[in-house]
Design brief:
This protein is mainly alpha-helical. It contains two helices and no strands.
């Protein structure tokens, strides 16, 4: 009977140790996932703020050109230049959006496939 209790106690301690190790792996992986997502979101935020500053600058240039226009052709020319730059900016925004989306998906896939799927499965 004592042998059975000793074996049960030993097995229980082993299971508790494995559970604690698995919990630590889960915490470490969750922290890594959180840090990677925060980093990715910060990069996206910087890109958005940069684009907002560029839009303000573009609008300011248009305003200056319109203020300096002395004829209808000058106004049309200012708007054509602005529209051309605006279309290029929109194209770049779309490209950046796709790049950021792909980066987000790639980061998610990498973190979840490397972290979560292996947690508790290494034994």
């Amino acid at each position: 009977m004592q042998s059975y209790q000793a074996e049960t106690t030993k097995a229980s301690k082993t299971v508790q140790k494995e559970i604690a190790e698995t919990e630590k792996e889960i915490r470490d992986t969750a922290l890594q996932v959180q840090n990677e997502f925060i980093k990715t979101c910060e990069e996206m935020s910087r890109a958005v703020m940069s684009r907002a500053a560029a839009q303000i600058e573009l609008a300011s240039k248009l305003s200056e050109k319109l203020g300096a226009a002395h004829s209808f052709p000058d106004v049309v020319s200012a708007y054509q230049g602005w529209l051309s730059e605006q279309m290029n900016a929109c194209s770049e925004d779309a490209r950046q959006f796709m790049t950021n989306g792909q980066k987000f998906v790639t980061t998610s896939t990498r973190l979840f496939s490397n972290g979560w799927s292996s947690v508790g499965m290494s034994r």
